[in-house]
Amino acid sequence: MTDTTPNRLLDAIHSPDDLKGRSRAELKQIADEVREEVIDVVSVTGGHLGSGLGVVELTVAIHAVFDAPADKLILDVGHQCYPHKILTGRRDQMRTLRQGGGLSGFTKRDESPFDPFGAAHAATSISAGFGFAKARDLQGKNNHVICVIGDGSMTAGMAYEAMNNAGADKSRLIVILNDNDMSIAPPVGAMSNYLSRLVSSRPYRGLRRIAKKVVSPIGLESPARRAEEYLRGFAMGGTMFEELGFYYIGPIDGHDLDTLIPILENVKAMREGPILIHAVTQKGKGYAPAENSADKYHGVSKFSVITGEQAKAKPSAPAYQKVFGQTLTKLAETDDKICAITAAMPSGTSVDVFQTAFPERTFDVGIAEQHAVTFAAGLAADGMKPFAAIYSTFLQRGYDQVVHDVAIQSLPVRFAIDRAGLVGADGPTHAGSFDIGYLGALPGIICMAASDELELARMVVTAADIDDRPSAFRYPRGEGTGVEIPDVLQPLEIGKGRVLREGTTIALLSYGTRLQEALRAAEMLMAQGLSATVADARFAKPLDTDLVERLARDHEVLITLEEGATGGFGSFVLEHLAKVGALDRGLKIRPMTLPDVFQNHDAPQAMYETAGLTARHIAARAIEALGRGDIAEIDRFARA
């Protein structure tokens, strides 16, 4: 419930218009109250905390100066958007954050007119902002476009591609670099803030133009400009941005409203080309547990506001990520060619486990998936054994490199595809829905999916032994099934699945994590006297064609299961059976995939229910295809 303590100014803020005309002291109080609100909300909902705390003053200042939604505010990645949502009429909904039917944890176009561009992947804001700026110009409008991009996103090449284009075009565009970690500039201070206010002011800009007019006729424009820019770059670190065509202002203290607001007002009045404001902030600002944490509480579960202690469910099994990191580390103890690559996700992928043991063989390339893939290809081409651990949704960004630099050259890069399948509260932008299809389309690649943590460990071992082609193995977020992992692991036979349960009427062929649901579905079917075989495909490519043909030949119904989009494993099975004529013999085959929609965020189990990939759905699909059995009885069995 929203705090309505008397004299809370935030209670009167229902849109950015309510910030207009406020005194500097009032805006500071509002910023403090927004910070308290963010901490209180996330303690209940979980989510991204540190990034939002770091931009509270910046968000207040932007909305106090500019006129959203007419002026377009684009937040890169969007995980820092909680203060923005509070100030744009969504405060009463904040406790629905990342819950089914509630607010998204990122900006989302269909959620509010104050979210002009949806985001959840890094480094898209400047490209999108430039698009908004050109659309404005072409339509004769006069609004501002403001992009807020973090220093982490500035490690991605797309940001520089956009700046290169926008800088050459000279359209009006405001980019705010939220620098909270890289330390790419000298420490901020009173002199730096003063210089930034100075160079954004009208008198300074006028003097600069006069100087150019004076020196141009006598041939001194270039030396004068270079001297001026050198001095400004030496003092303020802006030479690189100036060379890209942006007027650089900074670095400034991103938490000082007395500095931020005058600079933003000056910039709002400027009409000459793209501008970059370099604001230095502190991630987790104003909340001691976040400030003192190594990751600044980037992503948190529910927590105690007083202590900062996060609520942790007691795991019944190790997380898949830990199994990957520990297995790879163990293999590297006897194989000095194994190395690990991550794109700014060392802890999320458990590459940090490997890094602790082998720092010289660990490479965090930043938010640069394209580079990560081709870098891995270079390592592989000279005899190393690179494992590129990248979330499925982020590997999409390096797909051209997977095709051109890895697959065509048949280089043995091993892709550890984390977060494969649905991801709950992070929603469609982070779901790993498409890798089965987009990798399975490539000639020569080996594609595997782990059904439990032991299978994942064996796939790591298998991939290490593959030295003549690329390979990939996918695994989900979260805990395994609790299966024991022996000290000695045997590699899998390439292209061979396994049968876990023999039956006669229905065949359930699972690729990846839905195997346990298939086994439960078989029990439901057995309760009605319907015998079911359950098989784990293990490989989508090369497909175990012997297993597929046997299941098709010996059963009336064949159901394929995968936590992936249409066009993946089920399609590969259908194509093979069509080629060998198996579909002509009356086989009833039903592929079960993720639905052909971008599923909104929700609790994981609720998402599986929506997707129709639970044991109840599997059994019901089998009965429907078979034409006999009682679906209502399946529902009663599931409830029991």
UniProtKB/TrEMBL annotation:
Cofactor(s) in the UniProt record: Mg(2+); thiamine diphosphate
GO biological process: isopentenyl diphosphate biosynthetic process, methylerythritol 4-phosphate pathway; terpenoid biosynthetic process; thiamine biosynthetic process
Name of one Pfam family that matches: Transketolase_C
Coiled-coil region: none
Binding of Mg(2+), residues: D151, N180
CDD domains according to UniProt: TPP_DXS (cd02007), TPP_PYR_DXS_TK_like (cd07033)
UniProt keyword list: Isoprene biosynthesis, Magnesium, Metal-binding, Thiamine biosynthesis, Thiamine pyrophosphate, Transferase
EC identifiers of the protein: 2.2.1.7
Subunit structure: Homodimer.
Protein name, as recorded: 1-deoxy-D-xylulose-5-phosphate synthase
